[in-house]
Specification:
The structure holds two protein chains of two kinds.
Chain A: H1 3-22, H2 25-32, H3 34-39, E1 45-51, E2 59-64, E3 67-71, E4 80-84, H4 87-94, E5 102-104, H5 109-120, H6 134-157, H7 161-169, E6 173-179, E7 184-191, E8 194-199, E9 209-213, H8 216-223, H9 228-233, E10 238-241, H10 243-261
Parallel strand pairs in A: 1-4, 6-9
Antiparallel strand pairs in A: 1-2, 2-3, 4-5, 6-7, 7-8, 9-10
Chain B: H1 12-23, E1 27-31, H2 41-46, E2 51-53, H3 58-70, E3 74-80, H4 81-87, H5 89-98, E4 104-108, H6 126-131, E5 137-139, H7 144-156, E6 161-164, E7 187-190, E8 195-199, H8 203-214, E9 221-225, E10 228-230, H9 234-241, E11 246-254, H10 259-270, E12 275-281, H11 291-298, H12 302-313
Parallel strand pairs in B: 1-2, 1-3, 3-4, 4-6, 5-6, 8-9, 8-11, 11-12
Antiparallel strand pairs in B: 5-10, 7-9
Helix pairs in contact in B: 1-7, 3-5, 8-12
C-alpha cells in the first residue's frame, strides 16, 4: 500500500466510523433527551449524508413521526441531501471543522436547522470538563460507551488491521462495559471474524472481559484520562477477566479515539 | 505481567499469611527469587528476619525449608508451580514427604497460567506427581479467597502440603469472601441433578459459567469444587455424585494423573457405572500463548464444558447467529 492509498484508506475508515458509529448516537440522544425529542415531535423526513465518490460510505437519518432510525446507506429522493466532494470533506464536517457540503432540499430550512442543532448535541463527546447536570453526565457516558462498542465494530468492518486480527482469531467472546449505579451498559461480541455490538447486558454468555464503573462520575474520570490503568488503581474502574485482553481492548479504544480526533 | 499485581484478589493469601504469622512466630517464608510475583512481598516487608530468599534454586528452596521445619519452624516455601513440582520433585518426595516435614509448598502460576512462558513454564503435571507421593496433601483452590482458606487449613495441619494457585486474576466463582473449606471434602457450589461437573482451580468459575448458560435448555448442572485433590474422601465424593449418571471433570492440568484420574479411580473402585468425560490439558504440548487462548485450544474452558455436557445429555444450546452487517 502506498503512502497516499494508506491515507485514503484511513480517511475512509474515519468516515465509516463517523457515519455508522457517531451518527447513530443521535438515536440515543433523542431517546434520552426530552428537549430534543420534543423538537422532532411528529417529524417525518429523510436526510442523507453521502460522498460524491463511488463506494464511499453514506448514511440516512430516517425520521418517521418523530422516531429516528439511522440507516447505513443513502435512500432515493431524501428530503434533504448533504453531499460532500470527498471523504476528507465529510470528515472535516463531522470533525467540527469548516466544510460545506452541496445541499439539496434547502426548502426545508427549519428541518435542517433542527437537525444541525441535534448534531451539535454530540459536542458533548469532545474532551472537556464534565457537564454540570447529572442527566447530562449520564448521557455523555451513555454516548461514549455506545460509540465505543459501535466504533470498534466499524474498525473491524472497515479493515483496521489490529481489530481485524483480534476478531478473526477470537472464539466467541463478549466484552461488557457496565456503569453500576446508573445501570448503563453496552457490549461487544465477536467470533471468528464476525462482530456485533449492543446496549444493555448481553444475556446469553457471561463476559470474557468486564469493565465495571461504580458510577457515571467514575466513568467520566476514566474516559477523560489518557491512562486507563490509573483508573484501575484509583478504583474508578474494575476489570474482570483476562488482563491481556483488557489491555488489547484498551489499546483499540485508544486507536478509535485517535482516529476520531485526528484532523 | 505487571497488571496482575494491580488486581487485589491475588494479594489476599499474601495478606492472610502475614496475619497468621503475627499469631504464630514459628511461621517463616522462603522464596526462590520470586518474592514479588509470588505474593510474599508483604511478608518480606513485615518480617524481614523471617524471610529467606534462596535464589533461583528450587531444590535448595525445598531442602532449606525441610531443614527449618526440622528445627521446629513452619516454613511456607513459594515458587512457580512448574519448578516447585518438577525441578524439586525428588526433594519434595524425600526431604518433605518421606521425613514428614511440616512445610507448606506453594506453587503459583499453575497449569497454563503463565501461558506466555511456553511449556517450560506450564505446570500441568504437578498434581499427578505430588498426588503419587505418600503423605503429601495436595490442594487446588478455585480463587484467591479459597486460597486464603486453604492456607489457614494447611497451616493448621502438621505435615507437608502442596498448595496450587493460579495467577490471581481468576473470576471469583462465589461471594468475595473466604468460603467454608474442609480438608478432603468436595463442595457443591451449584445445585443440579442432570449432570455433575467436578472442577478444581480456575475451572470452577468456568464450570459455573457453563452451567448458567445451559439453564436456557433446561439443564440443571451441579458444579462441585474439588479443592482437595489428596486426601480425597471417597465417601464424600460419592455422596455428591449419588444421584447423577453423567460426570465431567475439568482442570487446568494434564488429563493424565490429575482430578480426572482421581475421580475415575474412585468411581471405578467404589461406584456403579457412570458416564465420565475428563477435560484438561491434552496429552500434547500446547505451545505459548495467552492462558485463555491455550485453555480454549486445549479444550478445557467454559465452551468445552458446554460441549461435553451437550454431548453427554443430547441437549444443545442454540447459537446466537445475529451479527452486525458489513
Amino acid at each position: 500500500m502506498t503512502a497516499e492509498s494508506s491515507v485514503q484508506a484511513r480517511a475512509e475508515l474515519r468516515a465509516r466510523v463517523f457515519l455508522k458509529a457517531v451518527l447513530p448516537l443521535l438515536e440515543t440522544v433523542l431517546a434520552h433527551s426530552a428537549e430534543h425529542a420534543r423538537a422532532f415531535d411528529g417529524v417525518t423526513a429523510q436526510l442523507c449524508f453521502s460522498v460524491e465518490q463511488c463506494g464511499a460510505p453514506s448514511a440516512t437519518l430516517d425520521f418517521q413521526s418523530g422516531r429516528l432510525r439511522v440507516l447505513a446507506q443513502s435512500v432515493a429522493n431524501p428530503t434533504v441531501d448533504f453531499r460532500f466532494r470527498d471523504v476528507a470533506a465529510l470528515n472535516r464536517f463531522f470533525g467540527g471543522s469548516l466544510s460545506v457540503p452541496r445541499v439539496t432540499g434547502l426548502a426545508h430550512p427549519r428541518l435542517i436547522a433542527k437537525v444541525l442543532r441535534l448534531m451539535l448535541s454530540l459536542q458533548v463527546l469532545k474532551p472537556g470538563p464534565p457537564p454540570p447536570s447529572a442527566a447530562e453526565r449520564a448521557l455523555r457516558v451513555r454516548l461514549v460507551l455506545t460509540l465505543l462498542s459501535r466504533g470498534l465494530v466499524q474498525l473491524h468492518l472497515g479493515g483496521h488491521a489490529p481489530m481485524v486480527e483480534l476478531v478473526s482469531a477470537s472464539p466467541e467472546r463478549v466484552y461488557q462495559w457496565t456503569v453500576e449505579r446508573e445501570r448503563i451498559a453496552v457490549w461487544l461480541r465477536m467470533h471468528l471474524g464476525r462482530i456485533q455490538a449492543g446496549s444493555g447486558t448481553y444475556e446469553k454468555r457471561a463476559p470474557f472481559v468486564h469493565f465495571v464503573f461504580p458510577d457515571v462520575d467514575a466513568a467520566l474520570k476514566v474516559f477523560g484520562s489518557s491512562e486507563q490503568m490509573s483508573g484501575v488503581r484509583d478504583g474508578s474502574v474494575r476489570t474482570l477477566g483476562s488482563p491481556e485482553y483488557t489491555r488489547k481492548l484498551a489499546y483499540l479504544m485508544q486507536c478509535m479515539d485517535q482516529l476520531l480526533v485526528e484532523g | 505481567m505487571e497488571d496482575v499485581n494491580l488486581i487485589s484478589e491475588s494479594e489476599i493469601w499474601g495478606d492472610v499469611l502475614v496475619e497468621l504469622a503475627h499469631q504464630d512466630p514459628r511461621i517463616v517464608a522462603l522464596s526462590a527469587d520470586l518474592a514479588h510475583s509470588t505474593k510474599l512481598r508483604r511478608f518480606k516487608e513485615t518480617f524481614p528476619e523471617r524471610f529467606f530468599n534462596v535464589g533461583i534454586a528450587e531444590q535448595n528452596l525445598v531442602a532449606v525449608a525441610a531443614g527449618l521445619a526440622a528445627m521446629g519452624l513452619v516454613p511456607v516455601a513459594c515458587t512457580y508451580a512448574t519448578f516447585a513440582s518438577l525441578r524439586a520433585a525428588e526433594f519434595v518426595r524425600t526431604d518433605l514427604a518421606y521425613n514428614r516435614r511440616n512445610v507448606k509448598l506453594i506453587g503459583t502460576l499453575s497449569g497454563v497460567a503463565f501461558g506466555q512462558g511456553g511449556p517450560t513454564h506450564h505446570a500441568v503435571e504437578d498434581i499427578a506427581l505430588l498426588r503419587a507421593v505418600p503423605g503429601m496433601t495436595v490442594l487446588c483452590p478455585s480463587d484467591g479467597f479459597e486460597m486464603a482458606a486453604c492456607l489457614r487449613a494447611a497451616l493448621a495441619l502438621d505435615g507437608p502440603v502442596y498448595l496450587r494457585t493460579g495467577r490471581g486474576v481468576e473470576l471469583p466463582p462465589e461471594q468475595q469472601k473466604e468460603p467454608p473449606f474442609t480438608l478432603g471434602i468436595p463442595r457443591v457450589v451449584r445445585a443440579g441433578r442432570d449432570v455433575a461437573v467436578l472442577a478444581c482451580g480456575n475451572l470452577v468459575a468456568e464450570a459455573l459459567r457453563a452451567a448458567e448458560r445451559l439453564v436456557r435448555v433446561g439443564l440443571e448442572v451441579r458444579v462441585v469444587n474439588v479443592s482437595t485433590l489428596k486426601p480425597l474422601s471417597s465417601d464424600a465424593l460419592l455422596s455428591v455424585l449419588d444421584d447423577v449418571r453423567a460426570v465431567i471433570t475439568a482442570e487446568d492440568h494434564s488429563i493424565v494423573g490429575g482430578l480426572g484420574s482421581a475421580v475415575a479411580e474412585l468411581l471405578a473402585e467404589h461406584a456403579g457405572p457412570r458416564r465420565l468425560k475428563r477435560l484438561g490439558h491434552p496429552d500434547r504440548w500446547l505451545g505459548q500463548g495467552i492462558p485463555e487462548d491455550l485453555m480454549h485450544a486445549g479444550g478445557f474452558d467454559e465452551d468445552a464444558i458446554v460441549r461435553a455436557i451437550e454431548s453427554l445429555t443430547g441437549m444443545k444450546l442454540a447459537s446466537d447467529e445475529t451479527w452486525d452487517a458489513p
